[in-house]
Amino acid sequence: MLFSKEDHDWMLRALAEASKSSDIGEVPVGAVITDGQILLAAAGNSPISGNDPTAHAEINVIRQAARKRGNYRLNGTTLYVTLEPCLMCMGAIIHSRIERVVFGAYDPKTGAAESRYRIGRDARLNHSLRVDGGLLQERCSALLTEFFRQRRLEPD
């Protein structure tokens, strides 16, 4: 898969959101939603600080983008996220009608876009989307690896 300069720029923005999440003790995952070259929303993970198990970066950014658009449908948009979405997030992506998902790091344990499941390409669902994985994979993976390395070093 060849990624455009714009894809790289948006993923860098998602990485910045992931860093913000890391700074507040959240798992460093960040996401942005774009409509062409327009940023609709940017968010990071916040399930711990928000006491909300659904507050993954993807869910947070979908909620923001839908409010900004004034519509729960996000047709024609692209979601950039630093980690491959899980089952819950892929469900929300399908329901919001996002057109394309671009992710950084693969998640071999719970990835639902490519690694474990291919939810966006399941013809049994009422919406399918384009999924492109591996953009800035090393940087996205390194942020997660360093976060968990630091967590293991911290005293209980």
| Share of residues in strands | 15-25%
Roughly what is the average pLDDT, rounded to an integer? 95
Biggest sheet descriptor: 5 strands, mixed
Shape: globular
Q: Give me the secondary-structure category.
A: alpha/beta
Indicate the radius of gyration in whole angstroms.
15 Å
Explain this structure:
It contains four helices and five strands; from the N terminus they run αββαβαββα. It has 156 residues and is of the alpha/beta class. Strand 3, helix 3 and strand 4 (100-105) form a beta-alpha-beta unit. The longest helix has 19 residues, at 5-23.
Topology:
Layout: H1 5-23, E1 30-35, E2 38-44, H2 57-69, E3 78-83, H3 87-96, E4 100-105, E5 130-133, H4 137-153
Parallel strand pairs: 3-4, 4-5
Antiparallel strand pairs: 1-2, 1-3
Helix pairs in contact: 1-4, 2-3
Characteristics:
156 residues; alpha/beta; 5-stranded mixed β-sheet; 38% helix; 19% strand; globular
Task: Summarize, please.
The chain is of the alpha/beta class and 156 residues long.
